[in-house]
Amino acid sequence: MKLVESIVAWQEEITAIRRDLHAHPELAYEEVRTADVVAEQLQSWGIETHRGLGVTGVVGTIHGKSRNGHALGLRADMDALPMQELNTFPHASSNPGKMHACGHDGHTAMLLAAARYLAQRRDFDGTVHVIFQPAEEGFSGARKMIEDGLFRLFPMQAVFGMHNWPGMPVGSFGVLPGPMMGSSNTFQVELEGKGAHAAMPHLGTDPVMAAVQLAQSFQTIITRDLDPLDPAVLSITQIHAGSADNVIPNSATMRGTVRTFSDQALDLIEQRMSEVAQLGGQAMNCKIAFTFNRKYPATVNHPEETAFSAEVLKSIVGEQNVLQDIRPSMGSEDFAFMLKEKPGCYVWIGNGSGDHRDAGHGLGPCMLHNGSYDFNDELIPLGATYWVELARRWLAAAAAR
């Protein structure tokens, strides 16, 4: 493993920053303290710092020894999750009901370490924009930064992202061309029937049975309408109806999620769900209100940038530790919005199995969105080295074209 020696020497210092962020988690668009920490660090290293994009976002601009018009972006997310931490070690969350359970504190720390090194050396031609993004966890912070002018105010030809991945060994990376993470979408079906005594169902219109019929019919969209080679998930996660055992209710509500790797599959599923809901409601004599909310698109890596990233990773950890046969995840990531606007690549960095956790960790597994999770600080110099090498080599290649 070939790590940047200066970054290794800073590990204790950057780890302290990471653990401070972990102890003070902030939710989407509330990352004021986190943004203060990031901005103060960037400014202390002489980095041009901009605030306010996406409400609480921070962008640092690092110019190399010459400005040749070439620039790339490196992105980390900053927000925490609205959940209770189960760990009791000293850097556990001090904010009840808020936790860095997805490693965004570690992502921020890795990018800070890289920014510090790049700013000290500036041994490259071109510009590196380090993007500290708010509100990844379901609130579209990437899209908000773009709407606020991210790519207009900070022109760049490519953008890159990274996320820790529990279960993958420390020292390994996962990367794929094409879909890496699924789209995230929600739906709701409101069914209006006519209430009646449960012993006299013929006097009413049962929205519960209509919901059951629709739930079964929706699954045929996946098994009969969709190309079997185009993966998708349609999960009904809630059905709410009724308040008594002997009453057929007036209404029922059904909710759930749809995940896909392609826009084509998503278009088909949304269209067919709407048709099935309306026609199914008519067949069951219920009024139907169907809504479909597209939240995050699929995270789709661009082939050229993915191949480039893989070669950089191989030079750091060896070919055997760059896993290019991994299975993509139906989990979602709003870095997808950036990849819709600019070519780029999103990689996973192995977080290990949880053995790194300090005494006092929760009894649960060290998995994302689990109250016993903690980021592996051993990754800080490795992730930062990847950012540094990627930036320097990409800018060198861009200048040579």
Automatic annotation (TrEMBL):
Protein name in the entry: Amidohydrolase
Keywords: Hydrolase, Manganese, Metal-binding
Highest taxon in the source lineage: Bacteria
Residues where Mn(2+) binds: 102, 104, 137, 163, 369
CDD domains: M20_Acy1-like (cd05666)
GO biological process: diaminopimelate biosynthetic process
Cofactor note: The Mn(2+) ion enhances activity.
Cited NCBIfam families: amidohydrolases
Peptidase M20 dimerisation domain: residues covered: 186-276
Molecular function in Gene Ontology: metal ion binding; N-acetyldiaminopimelate deacetylase activity
InterPro entries, sorted: Amidohydrolase, Bact_exopeptidase_dim_dom, Peptidase_M20, Peptidase_M20_dimer
Cofactor list: Mn(2+)
